[in-house]
Amino acid sequence: MVQTVPRKRIEILVDTPLVPRIVGKLKAVDISGWSLIHVDSGGGRAGEWQHDDVTGASAKTIVLAIASDTNTARLIDAIAPLLDSYGMLLTVGDVQVVRGERF
Amino acid sequence: MVQTVPRKRIEILVDTPLVPRIVGKLKAVDISGWSLIHVDSGGGRAGEWQHDDVTGASAKTIVLAIASDTNTARLIDAIAPLLDSYGMLLTVGDVQVVRGERF
Amino acid sequence: MVQTVPRKRIEILVDTPLVPRIVGKLKAVDISGWSLIHVDSGGGRAGEWQHDDVTGASAKTIVLAIASDTNTARLIDAIAPLLDSYGMLLTVGDVQVVRGERF
Amino acid sequence: MIADTLTSPVILFFVLGFVAAALKSDLTIPEAFAKAMSIYLMAAIGLKGGVEVSKSGITPEIMVAAAAGLALSFLLPVLAFALLRGIGKLSKVDAGAVAAHYGSVSVVTFVTAIELLTGEGLSPAGYMVAVLALMETPAIITGLMLARRGESAEGERNTTPWHEVLTNASVMLLVGSFVIGAIAGSDGFASVKPLFDTGFRGVLCLFLLDMGLIAARRLMQSRKMTLRLVFLAILLPLVNGTIGTIVGTVIGLDIASAAALGILAASASYIAVPAAMRLALPQADPGIYLSMSLGVSFPFNIIFGISIFAALAQALG
Amino acid sequence: MIADTLTSPVILFFVLGFVAAALKSDLTIPEAFAKAMSIYLMAAIGLKGGVEVSKSGITPEIMVAAAAGLALSFLLPVLAFALLRGIGKLSKVDAGAVAAHYGSVSVVTFVTAIELLTGEGLSPAGYMVAVLALMETPAIITGLMLARRGESAEGERNTTPWHEVLTNASVMLLVGSFVIGAIAGSDGFASVKPLFDTGFRGVLCLFLLDMGLIAARRLMQSRKMTLRLVFLAILLPLVNGTIGTIVGTVIGLDIASAAALGILAASASYIAVPAAMRLALPQADPGIYLSMSLGVSFPFNIIFGISIFAALAQALG
Amino acid sequence: MIADTLTSPVILFFVLGFVAAALKSDLTIPEAFAKAMSIYLMAAIGLKGGVEVSKSGITPEIMVAAAAGLALSFLLPVLAFALLRGIGKLSKVDAGAVAAHYGSVSVVTFVTAIELLTGEGLSPAGYMVAVLALMETPAIITGLMLARRGESAEGERNTTPWHEVLTNASVMLLVGSFVIGAIAGSDGFASVKPLFDTGFRGVLCLFLLDMGLIAARRLMQSRKMTLRLVFLAILLPLVNGTIGTIVGTVIGLDIASAAALGILAASASYIAVPAAMRLALPQADPGIYLSMSLGVSFPFNIIFGISIFAALAQALG
Ligand SMILES: Nc1ncnc2c1ncn2[C@@H]1O[C@H](COP(=O)(O)O)[C@@H](O)[C@H]1O
Ligand SMILES: Nc1ncnc2c1ncn2[C@@H]1O[C@H](COP(=O)(O)O)[C@@H](O)[C@H]1O
Ligand SMILES: Nc1ncnc2c1ncn2[C@@H]1O[C@H](COP(=O)(O)O)[C@@H](O)[C@H]1O
Ligand code: NA
Ligand code: NA
Ligand code: NA
């Protein structure tokens, strides 16, 4: 069977206007790539939002990144101080990655 | 290092017209938030579907919710009876959440 | 409490034009269904891309499939040789599936 | 008329879409563009209908046509249900769901009919837009009653989604722009006419291109269609359309409006009713009702039905 | 004018959207369609403004109007800030963020005003488009200064996102098509006029339909609006609009352009400024500034504000 | 002509997009809107071409032009391949992939050329749309053959995606609407002309705005462009366009059609061919072929190429 390596699957739900800042943090801790997943709408304590409400300011996006344990820990440390003011949601899960040496 | 807490990552793939019902169930079991992820198309035993086929009735959406173990168990119990007739797909995974006390 | 079964959650990030090929592989190893998640943009070693750049050729899509361990292993073996030339990213995680006997 | 129909760009674009999908071309119309076009088409016919009614006022003829439309939408599902159970061998739940679709209407079929009829010098009355809006929902009630007859209320009982049905997008948009047209009148309409009138037929071409793609893909991807169901998806428009045209003639509508009523009766919903059924009858199989209404009846009505009921109305009128 | 306003299709579509959302209808306008319409509207008014200025050339009057617009955008937030702190009881950060919105402008309010005023025979000068573009950003600077006054630079200091603010989409598009219109002139514009001129009012109807939906949903989903804030979201347009109209009259603008300057001052941003605030003041609550500008002030300006400042300009002029 | 070109709104919007992206503005055109516009543009030119051919019938001249187009598309990649290997230092696989792009065509470049040429009183013949459609695919075959020459069939051999190539969206849409135009003729076209003719140039402006954004972003985000490749992305259009214009003149086309053939030869695909290459040659680097065709050759052709080959055709004709 093909070799797999354990990596972290990081999901950051964040206001769309703030995505470039998050991507900046990812680059700063040497995470090599990211993908932005389209979120249509959502709801939480602050009420509900829809992607399609002209003012891009209330839309949210999921930043998905696969990273090594070390880089993940560095990212969490870098991002944690922003979590409250930015209203972010950050989850980390375990995955196996095929040919994952490059992450 | 920043503190993380273990939580459940619940993914429910469901017909788009039924999403409000699922969100109702989430609220009923005190899950505080949810996000809807855009699914473009898919296929299964009942054939294939595309999001862009005018009749919204065949589109599907992923309801993503991060929740505590207790709330997750309550949600599963609440939703399980509907799984067949609604044609849903419900998965639960483990994640670490940063500053996750509020979930 | 409702019964759940352990399954694999497979995520394949791949160039949109190649999705039909991946779906063909899924069918070939008897994975019963799949869903395509919309990715808006991303970045990696080869630079950045956006979904909205007229030429569909640089867009990427996530193929999501829930499958049994056996089928997952067969899929990985079938897809691994393509990983490099196709520029794919393949991750596998563990999830619990409700009423998952059919996967 | 059928020859004119088949060389009209509107129909030819539908055929192009159908052929492209049958050849498995990757041609697709972005969802947002298709929705934009359908919003445009509904706003445009609503406005135009309202402007016309602002001229005539609410006449007894309008009331009669409205009553006829309501009655048809309430009653046609009963006949359809019988045929779907008898010939189609469908379960009660599936037969009820399908019957609701055929009692309700398809906005695009109606719009296409208006364009083609008007091209033949047969303009249906403006108030038919209001009849269209009225016919969208009653069939849902009848269909649900038929599907649930004798059903004991066990488990999580799915109640009728009244709210969703009464405020559904196309009813709001049609009724709303009809009212706006009636308030604004010809003068108020003049300033928006370049968009809503001049471009109409061209937009309809592109929209039918998409509908051709969708209808053909639906047919090819469906795993639920039996020959019996295909047969019924042609029989029901014929039966319903004939009834509708006769009713229209009997209540004294002009030829064009009687034909339009026939086409409304013949057409089957594929947006509002499926959404309602998914909520109220989740156990009914969408593969059946969508394939029948969208995959078979829609193309049949566009290509043949419109001409058939126009001819029938002329023969009767 | 208010009676004409209320029977104009443009406003009636806005009302339709508002009512549909209030009834919780599932009517929605696809995001891509809404963005497409707003790009179209901005390109169209930019072009038309530029073509007009290509005829008149850059006159002293234009320079004065531009200076007045800049000054208003810089200074109006100061007054707003005081009212938001005093009456609204907002924190310094929230008050600064909201003040920036009210100093800046709403393109759609401006476009709707142009249409309604022109319908009354009151066409504002073409260069007001340039004034619109100039007024978008200065308020952001003032708002940020007010929010941060006395703040010690602790933790991750959020710097002013100069680059994002100066190159934001609507500024680029308005200024760009203004310049294109000025270069192309009437002759160059002739070839694209069918799209950018003829269809304009109809597109505005559909866009305001969407804005009605969005404004009402925003109001209903908000959990942050207090009566005080609703009151302020009506008071601020009245105060700012009055100041703007007076300034316009005093500096010698024609009646229509003075009214337009009043409406610019009254209008509140809901695209460019929220995006900038999210970056520069992430701790400010979007629930407050979006609900005020989009949920209350926008509808107020569209339905009442335009008529009010038109009447004021006529009274003063 | 170049002076007219540079003050045409069509080109100025392209420049605006390019500048906005270069300034890293957040201005973007929603994907669905861009696709909608490209569907509209293709349907419109297909229809117009078909209507014209419905008047002239299929003449020997058309057959000759079609044959010339096919031959160019088949053969131009051979020369391009040599230059890409020699000057560009590309691998065989990358050179074959790039060569296929330059043998094929860009619909938008063609459409822009038609508009600009027509503005100068030089209308290419209607059948050139058919030539455009014919030139899309042959280059793919040649490019793949060149890339695979001498390659041993090891591993998972990637076969030519015949089906995808032959039924690709733009071929279906161009050929389909061409046929519809030919069937409907002038009379049938009249009813849809307001949409497909009147609005055309305005839509092209907005579409080129998007293309400007995309071309500049592609250039800036690319990490694969060397000076040699930039040079080739300008040389290849010049060489191919000169050959195309000469061939057009030699086979006896009128000046405008010869210029159009030159522009088709000069233009490089960035939709159909990249998709085919991704499937058939996944190991070729999309960063190279997209940056060359979309980032360099497309802007070059739009701004300079069209004028150059128009001048050349006039000099030769
Ligand atoms: N438990 C959750 N699971 C998934 N998404 C959430 C959750 N809580 C919040 N969200 C998302 O985050 C947004 C803001 O949440 P809140 O700050 O609680 O209003 C919501 O609108 C959702 O899109
Ligand atoms: N570590 C990662 N996490 C998430 N997505 C990634 C990652 N690396 C690459 N990607 C995605 O894969 C695409 C191609 O990556 P690359 O081949 O490194 O340029 C990127 O543009 C991203 O969309
Ligand atoms: N194993 C699976 N993994 C991911 N998505 C699935 C899977 N099975 C089904 N789906 C999704 O659920 C939809 C309905 O599945 P089915 O009921 O099997 O036709 C499919 O069209 C897919 O979008
Ligand atoms: Na019917
Ligand atoms: Na203002
Ligand atoms: Na070429």
From TrEMBL, chains A, B, C:
Superkingdom of source: Bacteria
GO biological process terms, semicolon-separated: regulation of nitrogen utilization
Pfam families: P-II
GO MF assignments: enzyme regulator activity
Name of the protein in question: Nitrogen regulatory protein P-II
Organism listed in the record: Sphingorhabdus wooponensis
TrEMBL record, chains D, E, F:
Transmembrane segments: 6-23, 62-84, 96-114, 126-146, 166-186, 198-217, 229-253, 259-281, 288-313
Annotated keywords: Membrane, Transmembrane, Transmembrane helix
Entry keyword annotation includes Transmembrane helix: yes
Source organism (scientific name): Sphingorhabdus wooponensis
Protein name (database record): Sodium-dependent bicarbonate transport family permease
Family annotation (InterPro entries): Sbt_1
Domain of life: Bacteria
